């Protein structure tokens, strides 16, 4: 089973990503980072999730409360004042892992082979770990992240939230040499949480499904209001789904859910209108390794540093999520 650390800022879709990962991957730990809400709030939410889902054997370590150099930004308008508004969950009693998330990541990667990092919030913890212990870059098997976009943004027309909050951290990660899989908004926004999906979840009739459905009711309403979308978008489970061996999930047998293409991704750090944008070089996608210019020359790009998601089978991903939620009490 693949060994992962989920680095997150729960967050409604983060919570679902944790639930998905715990039934298909070996989750070595959950680390938290400020993003959707303050560090204290998202850490509380991570503990609430492991408690209601019966996952308290997974250590939860608290991380960075502030981007590397930018001021913190949170999105109560999307995830509410608690960061996980909707269900009324009791205050958690499970103790945190005593280590700082950055130390947790470094110690786990240095002592365990083939660890995969799954960042689904701003990249502050991961970048800090890479700076503090550069040897982890050669030991991390891969980073499967939710962030950025091949096309449009959500925080700004160009930038996606997780990258926009801490673009310098994202730059460190994308230039680290660690193999990266990037599930950006161009695919994650296609995975819906409208009334239809939420009622399917509620229909499972379990305690967990009731909590998840109630949380998605809130999330669907805010995304309708803020972005005029039909419902919520299940961004973060995509970065987990990209790692799941579907051949081991009988109802899901078939080709991969998410299609990736290798390309170079640069994080814009200065642009007046574009900072926080993931600038993806997809000029080769028409079947050519290079692009000819009208004067007979060629445009060459930087070598690929990431596998970027270009397409997603959203129906199968929703089925996978619902089949997985059915495994919870
Ligand atoms: C990302 O931002 C957060 O609000 C979500 O949890 C997701 O990780 C989508 O842009
Ligand atoms: Ca998130």
What do these coordinates show?
The protein has 329 residues and is of the alpha/beta class. It has a single domain, classed as Ribonucleoside hydrolase-like (Inosine-uridine Nucleoside N-ribohydrolase, Chain A, Alpha-Beta Complex). The protein contains twelve helices and 13 strands. It has helices spanning 12-24, 39-52, 76-79, 101-111, 124-132, 161-165, 167-174, 185-188, 195-202, 207-227, 237-241, 314-325, and strands at 3-8, 26-32, 60-62, 115-119, 142-146, 180-183, 192-193, 232-233, 258-267, 278-281, 291-292, 298-299, 306-312. Helix 1 (12-24) links the parallel strand 1 and strand 2 (26-32). Helix 1 packs across helix 12 (314-325), helix 4 packs across helix 5 and helix 9 runs antiparallel to helix 10. The longest helix is centred in the middle third of the chain and has 21 residues, at 207-227. Beta-D-ribofuranose (BDR) binds at residues 11, 13-14, 36, 75, 78, 120-121, 146, 154, 160-162, 235-236.
Map the helices and strands.
Blueprint: E1 3-8, H1 12-24, E2 26-32, H2 39-52, E3 60-62, H3 76-79, H4 101-111, E4 115-119, H5 124-132, E5 142-146, H6 161-165, H7 167-174, E6 180-183, H8 185-188, E7 192-193, H9 195-202, H10 207-227, E8 232-233, H11 237-241, E9 258-267, E10 278-281, E11 291-292, E12 298-299, E13 306-312, H12 314-325
Parallel strand pairs: 1-2, 1-4, 2-3, 4-5, 5-6, 6-13
Antiparallel strand pairs: 7-8, 9-10, 9-13, 11-12
Residues 8-9, 11, 14, 36, 120-121, 236 line the site of calcium ion.
